[in-house]
């Protein structure tokens, strides 16, 4: 084949691939797009033109591997104790919504947006929580939690703690304000800790799709509505998330042992 024809074929192939990439990122879920951006900014298609021939190489496998070795967990936002005016133990709290299960994360984003529209600003106090951090709360007493490591939905990225912020200050003791937030969360199908008594935990929201902590502990994933349409990258996202969670666990467990 003449060199010009080969080059044309190579370019066409490259265009096809780019078009496919855009299509996939357009319809993907939030998290999928995020990974897709990385994925497609990696050298997915590479056209090398030499005097002798035209080589097209698609380094797809390599790019997939690159996602799995990302150190995204290191960039998660976290806060130190007393950041929100309360004693929450010595270990930092992860506040990043990216640390949450993709479906639950989207529910929480909606909750934050809905509350904002009602004039209530919410801050994220804690999203994913390591086993080590959960144990710290357990030792701190019943005021904090009844659940030991692995028993809280926070260990599966399926729970979050928020607090309303007024004039830059976290407001922990306004029951009416909590109620307004709790009602919005319940409308989104979330379980609200403001309904609990021991402990009353109005900043806590969780969702498990009907699963219990025992299901979650053995790795069962909650059933997500229309998962294939709305979250085509769910399996991959959860795989990456679990890897990140494990890294955080290793880091915080190391602190505990000191
Ligand atoms: Zn909580």
From TrEMBL:
The keyword Signal applies. Keywords: Signal. Residues 146-207 form the Peptidase M15C domain. SUPFAM superfamilies: Hedgehog/DD-peptidase (SSF55166). InterPro entries: Peptidase_M15C (IPR039561), Zn_M74/Hedgehog-like (IPR009045). Residues 1-21 form the signal peptide. One of its GO terms (molecular function) is peptidase activity. This is M15 family metallopeptidase.
